[in-house]
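Reading group handout, session on sequence-to-structure problems. Before we discuss, look at one worked example. The prompt was deliberately terse, the way you'd type it at a terminal:

> structure Integral membrane protein, YjbE family

The input record follows.
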Amino acid sequence: MLEFFATLHWGAVFQIIIIDILLGGDNAVVIALACRNLPPSQRVRGVLWGTAGAIVLRVVLIAFAVVLLDVPLLKFTGGLLLLWIGVRLLAPAHDAHENVKPADKLLSAIKTIIVADAVMSLDNVVAIAGAAEAAEQQHRLVLVIFGLVVSIPLIVWGSQLILKLLDRFPFIVLFGAALLGWIAGGLMVNDPAGDRWPILDTPAAEYGMSIAGALFVVIVGYLLKRRNTRRAAV
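And the output record:
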């Protein structure tokens, strides 16, 4: 054990922790949005279990980061999935949950957190894996897990804070959903399948797709929410 710490690359440890802190904001938003409709008594459980599941899945993603990011259409498909998650978080199908038990709602929130985090992490895991490359081979996975564990309290605290803000300022939901659309657009335009079109490999194309993704989530989410409201009134 002493030898392990003696040979540990502390610079890589510091880099991974910083990366996790910087990237934790997106996760906190997703967790808060997914748990906002849970009863207050279940919110903490939703946050904790959703975060735990997302962290475990991220470790797996990091182990296969380079291979995953080179698979054509994976990022594009993930972007489409994230667009739909953003729309559904903005306009949840309330009528579909009228007879759903609280435990089922909790499980649904946890699933949403894990799936959304996995999609959003496709790019982020590369930064963490890159930082771990500076360390010895036998230390890399341990460093990744350590960095993620250190970031857990920050993500949980951040999501709890955002949940309180959502209760007080509901319009923040719109911002959170738009953020998911922005990330989805960036994922889709950076898919390896688009490498044959140089025009897609430009800042203008990336920003354009990110803006389009945010607008798509906001507009479609608004229309679905209005439709759900009309149905509920009837």
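Points for discussion. First: The longest helix spans residues 102-132. Second: Residues 9-233 form one domain.
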